[in-house]
């Protein structure tokens, strides 16, 4: 996983609440058995005027000129500014894969859906919750000035605006630690292998019916 | 000491380790796998040279991509015409074989939607932690199991460590008290709950569904409700154990037997919230006030009683809500204040992990019996949730009822719930669907989904538009019911 400590980037505003995972990456692209290559189909329904399907050459497709990511002033964006309950819907991890593959490292919104929150951090995307009023103000600032960039500091948990205003945000301590260090969850958990085995043994004794193959595991 | 909620009990029974920062390692008893969210997890496992921690905790079946037409299904995997879908299903087969994970393959009678298969096999038991790379894993909470959806990285994590990193949720109790009106089902209850608390109302909470109306429900009904907890923003839905739970599980293939059964039942009896347990939030709903529900918009909270009407954005003060309503009406092709019963339908879908169990099919068949699908309906399909549900329905003659009424009777799978296989809506088509999500494009590009109960869907198929099931069921059977063209 890519680590993230500080990030400075161009901000793109997606003025929509409850952006669900179907909207982030439509289901026809979930058929891939890979983890990469979803970027060209991020927000597919909003971005293109036709229906997309996997394996297509997206450069031949008609773009929706009104969609924010298609506008020239937002090319090269890496920070998405959006509205409440971002990432609701399914548990598909393809959503953060698509955001990451497109080039987003940070998403700012008043709130995020639960499963998406975990999935995003696991894939090196920082989610920054800011209150509704602040987000509204950022929307106005982004729209008012072309080339609007924000400075995000995960260590300090702050976002700094071009005018020098410093906004702080909350982040789960564990997620922060992993993201700062680019740590893989599985490796970390296996450091506790002993504790897991011990638990498992007690659990098996107390609830033997939860283990179907007591024989195989007894060794 | 204050009592514990059911969720608190399940949590502490699975807690391996708690970190200082509040994250915890919890032990996973059952891991269900399907073809869509597992390939990348197995790929990760292979790349890191790791092995599954405990094989017997895993159970797999393909469901999202499988065709539902008999001709294609007869050919097994070879009948999957979409090459990408085929690769996904094939990859699941290969991975399960390579690692030794039990799988119900495409033509196994036990194959079906994971959330139908787990409980049906008794592979979901009270007191378990159950996870699956699918958000509707909440379904299994109907058995007082701590069950929720996980992402693909977590699928890999569970395979490799038998644990999950988790944070404790807050407790929300939704009490549905009193008697449901005739014709009102679990689906109407859960849609009414979502209409009341909104799609983010349960975010951060485990919802326990309680109250006399929930106790009255069958396991199928409880599963329907827990299934859609996620549509209320909660990853977890729960119902405490009672006789209904235990009776359902007796003699299921994966359930314990003999002395272990008795020991298990004794332990399960405690899987209820203590009388003095504290909930962080509580919502009480009067069952008698719940009418048949129909969603009109592109979010499950955009719901109205069948006799109601679509909202008028002009009357909404909050700008962001108003914007959402305008956009939804535009997408759905509906006019403000249009009556729900005036929405013309093109297709009807009875199926999905929300409503494809035997009881759902019985309810729909009761309405379909002796009637005919309206001429204006291009396709009305019934897709059983598993091969065993299908077999049971056929033994009861439900397939004949559906076929005679003009419904298609299909092979088990997710089908048009998310349209990853060939079953789709065309752009602009309206569908009465017993599934759980009405998001834009969910059932096909440009498709317009209205979520309803199985009985409401069947009635809508016959009328060609939504009708109040209560009026409908009161009428004597009318084989010659006038059809609207
Ligand atoms: S039936 Fe629908 S909601 Fe349920 S698992 Fe399948 S696709 Fe998901």
The ordered H/E elements of chain A are EHHEHEHEHEEEHHHH
By CATH reckoning, the class of the largest domain in chain A would read Alpha Beta
Tally of contiguous helical segments of chain B: 17
Tell me the structural class of chain B.
Answer: alpha/beta
Q: What structural category arises from helix and sheet content of chain A? A: alpha/beta
Overall pLDDT metric of chain B: 94
End-to-end separation of chain A in angstroms reads 35 Å
Rg of chain A, alpha carbons: 20 Å
CATH C-level name of the largest domain in chain B: Alpha Beta
Question: Greatest interface and its residue counts?
Answer: A-B, 58 and 75 residues
- Spans of chain B with pLDDT under 50 lasting ≥5 residues? 474-485
**Sheet with the most strands: spatial strand order of chain A:** 4-3-2-1-5-6-7
At the fourth level of CATH, the homologous superfamily of the largest domain in chain A is Aconitase, domain 4
- From the 3D structure, determine the CATH topology of the largest domain in chain A: Aconitase, domain 4
In terms of DSSP E residues, the strand content of chain B is 15-25%
Q: Between the first and last Cα atoms of chain B, what is the distance in angstroms?
A: 65 Å
Q: What's the name of the CATH homologous superfamily of the largest domain in chain B? A: Aconitase, domain 3
* Helical amount of chain B: 25-40%
Task: Describe the structure in your own words.
The complex is a heterodimer of chains A (219) and B (485). Chain A is of the alpha/beta class and 219 residues long. Chain A folds into two domains: 6-183, Aconitase, domain 4 (Alpha-Beta Barrel); 185-219, no CATH class. In chain A, 33% of the residues lie in helices and 15% in strands. Chain A has helices at 21-24, 44-47, 94-102, 114-122, 132-144, 173-181, 185-190, 193-206, 214-218, and strands at residues 6-14, 79-82, 106-109, 126-129, 149-153, 158-160, 166-168. Chain A has a seven-stranded mixed sheet with strand order 4-3-2-1-5-6-7, with helices on both faces. The model of chain A is unreliable at 215-219 (pLDDT under 50). Chain B is of the alpha/beta class and 485 residues long. Chain B has two domains: 1-290, 2-Layer Sandwich (Aconitase, domain 3); 293-471, Aconitase, domain 3. Helices cover 33% and strands 16% of the residues of chain B. Chain B has 17 helices and 19 strands. Chain B has helices at 6-13, 39-47, 70-74, 83-99, 114-121, 152-161, 186-197, 212-215, 219-227, 243-249, 258-268, 319-332, 358-368, 387-395, 398-405, 454-463, 469-474; strands at residues 15-18, 23-27, 30-33, 58-60, 102-103, 129-132, 146-149, 163-167, 170-177, 205-210, 236-238, 281-286, 293-295, 303-305, 347-350, 379-382, 408-409, 430-433, 448-451. In chain B, a hairpin with a 4-residue loop joins β1 and β2 (23-27). In chain B, α13 packs parallel to α16 (454-463). The relative contact order of chain B is 0.13. Residues 474-485 of chain B have low confidence and may be disordered. Classes of the chains: A alpha/beta (219), B alpha/beta (485). Chains A and B meet through α4, α6, α7 and α8 of A and β2, α2, α4, α6 and β8 of B. Bound molecules: iron/sulfur cluster (SF4). Residues 63-64, 113, 115, 134, 136, 352-353, 414, 417-418, 435-436 of chain B line the site of iron/sulfur cluster. Chain A: Belongs to the LeuD family. LeuD type 1 subfamily. Chain A: It holds the Pfam family Aconitase_C. Chain A: It catalyses: (2R,3S)-3-isopropylmalate = (2S)-2-isopropylmalate.
């Amino acid at each position: 996983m890519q680590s993230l400590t500080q990030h400075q980037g161009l901000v793109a505003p997606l003025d929509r609440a409850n952006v669900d995972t179907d909207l982030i990456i439509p289901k026809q692209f979930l058929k891939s058995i890979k983890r990469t290559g979803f970027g060209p189909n991020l927000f597919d329904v909003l971005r293109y005027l036709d229906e997309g399907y996997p394996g297509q050459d997206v450069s031949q497709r008609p773009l929706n000129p009104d969609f924010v990511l298609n506008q020239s002033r937002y090319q090269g964006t890496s920070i998405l500014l959006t509205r409440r309950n971002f990432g609701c819907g399914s548990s598909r991890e393809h959503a953060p894969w698509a955001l990451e593959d497109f080039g987003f490292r940070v998403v700012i919104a008043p709130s995020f859906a639960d499963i998406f929150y975990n999935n995003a951090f696991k894939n090196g995307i920082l989610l920054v919750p800011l209150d509704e009023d602040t987000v509204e103000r950022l929307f106005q600032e982004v729209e008012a000035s072309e080339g609007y960039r924000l400075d995000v500091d995960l260590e300090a948990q702050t976002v700094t605006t071009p005018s020098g205003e410093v906004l702080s945000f909350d982040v789960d301590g564990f997620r922060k630690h992993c993201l700062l260090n680019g740590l893989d969850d599985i490796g970390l958990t296996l450091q506790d292998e002993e504790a897991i085995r011990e638990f498992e043994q007690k659990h098996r004794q107390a609830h033997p019916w939860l283990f179907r193959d007591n024989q195989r595991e007894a060794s | 000491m204050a009592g514990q909620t059911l969720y608190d009990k399940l949590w502490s029974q699975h807690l391996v380790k708690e970190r200082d920062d509040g994250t915890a390692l919890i032990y996973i008893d059952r891991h269900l796998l399907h073809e869509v969210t597992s390939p990348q997890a197995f790929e990760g496992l292979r790349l890191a040279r790791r092995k599954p921690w405990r094989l017997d905790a895993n159970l797999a079946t393909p469901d999202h991509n499988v065709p539902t037409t008999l001709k294609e299904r007869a050919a097994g995997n070879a009948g999957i015409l979409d090459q990408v879908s085929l690769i996904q299903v094939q990859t699941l087969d290969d991975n399960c074989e390579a690692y030794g994970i039990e799988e119900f393959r495409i033509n196994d009678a036990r194959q079906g939607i994971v959330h139908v298969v787990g409980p049906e096999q008794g592979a979901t038991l009270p007191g378990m932690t159950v996870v699956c790379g699918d958000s509707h894993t909440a379904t299994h909470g109907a058995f007082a199991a701590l069950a929720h959806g996980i992402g693909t990285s977590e699928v890999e994590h569970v395979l490799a460590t038998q644990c999950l990193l988790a944070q404790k949720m807050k407790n929300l109790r939704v009490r549905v008290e009193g008697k449901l009106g005739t014709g009102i089902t679990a689906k109407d209850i859960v849609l009414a709950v979502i209409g009341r608390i909104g799609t983010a109302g349960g975010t951060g909470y485990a919802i326990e569904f309680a109250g006399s109306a929930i106790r009255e429900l069958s396991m199928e009904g409880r599963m329907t409700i827990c299934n859609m907890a996620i549509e209320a923003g909660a990853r977890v839905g729960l119902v405490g154990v009672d006789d209904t739970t235990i009776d359902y599980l007796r003699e299921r293939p994966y359930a314990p037997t003999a002395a272990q059964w008795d020991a298990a039942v004794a332990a399960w009896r405690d899987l209820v919230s203590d009388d003095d347990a504290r909930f962080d939030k509580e919502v009480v709903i009067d069952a008698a006030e719940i009418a048949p529900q129909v969603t009109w918009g592109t979010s499950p909270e955009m719901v109205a009683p069948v006799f109601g009407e679509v909202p008028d954005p002009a009357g909404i003060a909050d700008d962001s809500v108003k914007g959402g309503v305008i956009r939804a009406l535009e997408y759905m092709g509906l006019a403000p204040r249009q009556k729900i019963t005036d929405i013309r339908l093109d297709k009807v879908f009875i199926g999905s992990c929300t409503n494809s169990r035997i009881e759902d099919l019985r309810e729909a068949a009761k309405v379909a019996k002796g009637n005919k699908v309206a001429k204006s309906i291009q396709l009305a399909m019934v897709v059983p949730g598993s091969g065993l549900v299908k077999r049971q329905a056929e033994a009861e003659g439900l397939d004949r009822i559906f076929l005679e009424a003009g419904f298609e009777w299909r092979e088990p799978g997710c089908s048009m719930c998310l349209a990853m296989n060939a079953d789709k809506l065309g752009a602009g088509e309206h569908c009465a669907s017993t599934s759980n999500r009405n998001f834009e494009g969910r059932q096909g590009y440009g498709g317009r989904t209205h979520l309803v109960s199985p009985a409401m869907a069947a009635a809508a198929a016959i009328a060609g538009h939504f009708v109040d099931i209560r009026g409908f069921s009161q009428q004597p059977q009318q084989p010659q019911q006038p059809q609207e063209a």
